[in-house]
Design a protein that fits this description.
The protein contains four helices and two strands. The protein is mostly helical. The chain has one domain: Rossmann fold. Strands 1-2 form a two-stranded parallel ribbon. The longest helix is centred in the last third of the chain and has 17 residues, at about 75-94. The two termini are about 40 Å apart.
Length: about 90
C-alpha cells in the first residue's frame, strides 16, 4: 500500500475552485478546505507528494508513481521466487 497527497500549486486557487462550481454549501467548502490543509500540513506522512501545477505533467507523474509502486520488492516476491529457484539449481550443479 502506498499513500499519496495531491496539492494544488496554490492554496488560494484551491479555495476558489469549489466556490466557482457553486455545488456545495459554504460549510461543506470550508470543511473540505480545512481537511485539505491538514493533509498538506502532514505531507511528510505520505509516501509521495504530487504538486499539481499542470494537469498533463501531474498525470505523467501519477502514472510513474503507480508503476514504481507496482514494482516494489515486497510486491514482486511471487515473481522473483521462481527466478531464485533456477539459481539454486545452478549452484547444486556447480
Amino acid at each position: 500500500m502506498m499513500s499519496l497527497v495531491v496539492a494544488k500549486s496554490s492554496g488560494v486557487a484551491r479555495s476558489r475552485l469549489p466556490r466557482a462550481r457553486s455545488q456545495d454549501s459554504e460549510a461543506v467548502i470550508l470543511r473540505r478546505l480545512h481537511d485539505a490543509a491538514g493533509e498538506i500540513r502532514n505531507y511528510s506522512l505520505y509516501d509521495y507528494v504530487l504538486v499539481n501545477r499542470e494537469v498533463a505533467a501531474s498525470v505523467e507523474t501519477l502514472v510513474a508513481i503507480v508503476k514504481a509502486t507496482r514494482s516494489r520488492r515486497d510486491r514482486m516476491e511471487d515473481e522473483i521466487r521462481p527466478i531464485l529457484e533456477t539459481f539454486s539449481k545452478v549452484k547444486k550443479e556447480v
